[in-house]
Specification:
Elements (H helix, E strand, L loop, with lengths): L12 E6 L8 E8 L3 E11 L8 H12 L13 E7 L4 E12 L2 E12 L3 H4 L3 H20 L4 H22 L17 H4 L2 H13 L4 E5 L2 H12 L4 H4 L19 E5 L10 H5 L6 E4 L4 E4 L3 H20 L27 E2 L6 H9 L8 H27 L10 H7 L5 H14 L3 H5 L7 H9 L2
Parallel strand pairs: 1-3, 7-8, 7-9
Antiparallel strand pairs: 2-3, 2-6, 4-5, 5-6, 9-10, 10-11
Helix pairs in contact: 3-4, 6-11, 6-14, 12-14
InterPro entries: C9orf72
GO molecular function: guanyl-nucleotide exchange factor activity
Protein name: C9orf72-SMCR8 complex subunit
C-alpha cells in the first residue's frame, strides 16, 4: 500500500428501524473519540424504506468528525450533557449532537449521540427540538450507567432512537397546523349540546389551561377526538401547535412524551393504557380527556409533578446501577425496587378547582354568531387577557420578593389584588406564568414539598 493511501475504517454497524410513513430523520449515530484513530462511529440507526436522501458510511464518518473534533479538550462537570446544533449547508444537513463522557472498554471517552436531518426539515424540526433532546438526554443517563458496568449501550440507545423516529414520522403526517380554522372546532357549533356537553367542554378547557396546555385526548371516534384536539390547540401558541398531533384514523399512535396535545384512539376493547414512565417524564403535568364518556382528569400541579418526576428518575437510575446483569431490569421497566419511594400509578385525579375565567369565556363566545371572524377575535382577546394576567402575576411576585431574594408570603394578597380568588383562576394564570418563567410553582409554594391535598388546604385557608 502506498504511503498516500489512508487505511480504510471498519464498516459502521447499522440498525434499520421500521417506521410507518415518511421519516424526515436521515440517521442517528453514536460516535466516540478514539485516542489513536480519532472520531469513530460505533453505531448508526436509519429508518427503513424510501428516504429523501441517504448517507454513505463515509459521509456518516465525516459528520462524526465534524461533531467530535473540537471536543478533545472538553471540560465539563461529571455527568454533563452538552447539546450542539450544526447546520452544514455544503452537505445540506442539520445535526443535533449530545456530547457526553462515558467509559468504553475501561477507558474514559468523549462520546456523541447525534441525529441527522435534511436542512429542508429545519422549520419542521425546531418546535420538536426540546422534546427530542430531553428524551435523548435521559437515554444517555441510562446509557452511561450501562457503559460504566460494561454493558452494551447500543441496546439502551435503541430504545429511545426508534420511538423518536416514529414520533417524527407521525408528526410529519398528522401534525396540527399552525393556523386552525375555528370552523373545525367545537367553538363553531351553534348548539354544543349536540356534539359536546357544555360542562364537559368547560372542564376540558379549564384543566387543559391548568396543566400548561398539555392534554391527551382519547376516544373511539377519530373525528370526535380530532375535533377536541383542534379545539384545545386554539389555546396554544403557533409553535406549540406544531408540537401537537392529531390521531390517526386507521390505528392509534403511541403516547409520546413532550407533545402538548395528542389524540389517541382506543383499541378494539374500548381501552387505552397510558405508559406510566412516559407520562411522568413529560415536561408539564397532563390532562386526560375521554371523549367517549366525557371525563376529564388531570395530574398534580407543576411543582408536585416535577418532584415526583425527579424522585422517580433517581429511583430508576439507582435500580439500574444495582443490577448484576444486563438482563435483570430492562431499561424501559417501571421501577419498584426503591424502598423509600413506591410510585403511584394512578397519577390522574379529578379536576377539583373551579374557575370563572373559562366559564365566562364559554358563556360569552357562544352568544356570538358562528362561522364569522367574531369568535376568533374574541378568543384572541381572551388569550391576550390570560397572557397579561400571567405577566402581571410575575411582576407582582418579583416586587414582593425583591426579584427572588426573599420567599413569597403574600398569596392571599395576590389573589385579592389580581382578582384570582377562585383556585381554578389562580391555577390557570400560574400555569401560563410557569411557561414564561420555569420554576415559578416551586418558588411560590416554597422549598418544603406540598402534596396536592396540602396545597388545597393552604389555599382554602386564605
Amino acid at each position: 500500500m502506498s504511503s498516500g493511501c489512508r487505511p480504510q475504517s471498519p464498516a459502521v454497524a447499522k440498525t434499520e428501524v421500521a417506521v410507518e410513513g415518511e421519516c424526515p430523520l436521515l440517521a442517528a449515530t453514536f460516535a466516540y473519540w478514539d485516542n489513536i484513530l480519532g472520531p469513530r462511529v460505533r453505531h448508526m440507526w436509519a429508518p427503513r424504506g424510501e428516504q429523501p436522501m441517504a448517507l454513505s458510511d463515509g459521509e456518516v464518518t465525516f459528520l462524526a468528525n465534524h461533531t467530535l473534533n473540537g471536543e478533545i479538550l472538553r471540560s465539563a462537570e461529571c455527568g454533563a450533557v452538552d447539546v450542539k446544533f450544526f447546520v452544514l449547508a455544503e452537505k445540506g444537513v442539520i445535526i443535533v449532537s449530545l456530547i457526553f463522557d462515558g467509559e468504553l472498554k475501561g477507558d474514559k471517552n468523549t462520546c456523541a449521540l447525534s441525529v441527522i436531518l435534511p436542512q429542508t426539515e429545519l422549520a419542521f424540526y425546531l418546535p420538536l427540538h426540546a422534546a427530542c433532546v430531553e428524551r435523548l438526554t435521559h437515554g444517555i443517563r441510562k446509557g452511561r450507567i450501562w457503559m460504566q458496568k460494561g454493558y452494551n449501550i447500543i441496546s439502551v440507545l435503541s430504545l429511545e432512537i426508534a420511538p423518536i423516529m416514529e414520533l417524527l414520522a407521525s408528526m410529519k403526517s398528522h401534525c396540527v397546523p399552525e393556523e386552525i380554522d375555528i370552523r373545525d372546532t367545537v367553538l363553531n357549533d351553534d348548539d354544543i349540546g349536540d356534539s359536546c356537553h357544555e360542562g364537559f367542554l368547560h372542564k376540558a378547557i379549564s384543566s387543559h389551561l391548568q396543566t400548561c396546555g398539555c392534554s391527551v385526548v382519547v376516544g373511539s371516534n377519530p373525528e370526535k377526538v380530532n375535533k377536541i384536539v383542534r379545539t384545545l390547540c386554539l389555546f396554544l401558541t403557533p409553535a406549540e401547535r406544531k408540537c401537537s398531533r392529531l390521531c390517526r384514523a386507521s390505528s392509534s399512535f403511541k403516547y409520546d412524551t413532550g407533545l402538548f396535545v395528542q389524540g389517541l384512539l382506543k383499541d378494539s376493547t374500548g381501552s387505552f393504557v397510558l405508559p406510566f414512565r412516559q407520562v411522568l417524564y413529560a415536561p408539564y403535568p397532563t390532562t386526560h380527556i375521554d371523549v367517549d364518556i366525557n371525563t376529564v382528569k388531570q395530574m398534580p400541579p407543576c411543582h408536585e409533578h416535577t418532584f415526583n418526576q425527579r424522585r422517580y428518575m433517581r429511583s430508576e437510575l439507582n435500580a439500574l446501577w444495582k443490577t448484576d446483569s444486563e438482563d435483570d431490569i430492562p431499561p424501559e421497566t417501571v421501577i419498584y425496587t426503591d424502598e423509600t419511594f413506591t410510585p403511584d400509578l394512578n397519577i390522574f385525579q379529578d379536576v377539583l378547582h373551579t374557575d370563572t375565567l373559562v366559564r365566562s369565556f364559554i358563556d360569552e363566545v357562544f352568544l356570538l354568531k358562528p362561522g364569522l371572524a367574531l369568535r376568533s377575535a374574541y378568543l384572541a382577546q381572551f388569550l391576550l387577557l390570560l397572557h397579561r394576567k400571567a405577566l402581571t402575576l410575575l411582576k407582582y411576585i418579583e416586587d414582593e420578593t425583591q426579584k427572588g431574594k426573599k420567599p413569597f408570603r403574600a398569596l392571599r394578597n395576590l389573589k385579592a389584588d389580581l382578582d384570582l380568588k377562585a383556585e381554578g383562576d389562580l391555577n390557570i394564570v400560574m400555569a401560563m406564568a410557569e411557561k414564561l418563567r420555569a420554576g415559578l410553582h416551586s418558588f411560590v409554594f416554597g422549598k418544603p414539598f406540598y402534596t396536592s391535598m396540602q396545597e388545597r388546604d393552604v389555599l382554602m385557608s386564605f
